[in-house]
Amino acid sequence: MAVVTQQFRASYAFFERNVNLIKRYWSWELVWLVYSIADCMSVSFIGLGMQQISGSEITNTSYIVLYLLIGTLVWRFLFTIFYWITDLINIERWEGTIEYTLMAPVRRITHMTGQTTFAVIYGFFFTGVILAITSLVFKIDLTQANFVGGTIVLLSGSFSFVGIGIMASVLPLLFPERGSQMTHVFIAVLLLVSGVYYPVNVLPLVLRKAAIFSPATYVLDGVRKALLDGTPTAQLWQYVWPVLLMGLVLIPLGLLIFRQAELYAKRSGKLHRNG
Fold this sequence. Notes:
Layout: H1 2-24, H2 26-54, H3 61-86, H4 88-95, H5 98-103, H6 108-138, H7 147-168, H8 170-174, H9 179-182, H10 184-193, H11 205-211, H12 215-228, H13 237-268
Helix pairs in contact: 1-6, 2-3, 2-6, 3-6, 3-7, 3-12, 7-12, 7-13, 12-13
């Protein structure tokens, strides 16, 4: 029990560290929030303009607006989790603590638990604020939406993105100068194949097959079913179990890959660099 308590406190310490970073750089978070709101609204306005763009009458533009808005919000949530995990190394380098953190006698799973717990909670809060503001602007009716089911799908999908984020965080660890930029390849591919702004079936065959392996595909479909159609929670299981299975595989695999990269970084002296 003492060991469990010690590990819990260590995880909470990393969680609290990120909270303090938010407090310290609150102005940057405000800028990022404004940018995210503007981005979501810009994409949603495409739905309102579809009738003028297409030159034909569209009877239900509100459905298109909500379709695009849900896609943008879900992607923003998943991206926030990915960002806070992959940018872990950059934050440590920026603060000048990377060598102390990775050399400390703390289990890596304990370290990652604190980091990912913060990422998920912060992602929910961040996305909730954007949803509240954009709903007021577009006067969206969500009275028939299944928020409980949508939240369950979203939480389930977050595990997969945690695993992907841990694997991607190896890049800034091994390549201090350009590793952070290299992680955007992961998110760009997922954005392309997952159907964030369009149905997956409009993609070429090769990309449609790739979409099957993207956890974001199932999360987006499940959340849209819950919020757009009010699908009961029990019927959303078909979107939940694939992402839970992916998370079950990706998180241990990510920890294993990160462990090997960490050992290499320690042997090669990359932890000392702040490039």
